[in-house]
Design goal:
117 residues; mainly alpha
């Protein structure tokens, strides 16, 4: 386990926070989550965090691999597929269909005009 994927790392905490925000019926890729957690090139670390996460408040099944592939899910890809289908996400074999439609798109908040970036 790398220091970034340690459950106590600040990056892991940001990843779990991002994943909790993915709404039912939507998915995000490991890369999407990494970018939203502040480390765009850390998709593999996100995968490790998801693999080791056993928290019921974190919908890890909504995080998928690039191109719509399901990726792992604690050794039970069939369970991941079932959970996604139960949320209305179309899945064929090992891939999410209609990824453009079901991919979580985070709405960027507009900067306050009175502040500087």
């Amino acid at each position: 386990m790398t220091r970034d994927s340690s459950p106590d790392s600040s990056f892991a905490k940001r990843v779990l926070s991002v994943v909790r925000r993915i709404p039912p019926g939507r998915v995000a890729t490991y890369g999407d989550v990494a970018a939203l957690a502040g480390r765009a090139r850390a998709a593999r670390a996100v995968g490790n965090i998801m693999r080791d996460c056993r928290r019921p408040d974190v919908p890890c099944h909504r995080v998928i691999a690039a191109g719509g592939r399901l990726g792992g899910y604690g050794g039970s890809e069939a369970l991941k597929r079932s959970l996604l289908v139960a949320e209305g996400i179309p899945v064929s074999w090992k891939r999410v269909r209609e990824l453009d439609r079901v991919r979580w798109k985070v709405k960027r908040q507009k900067a306050d005009p009175g502040t500087r970036d």
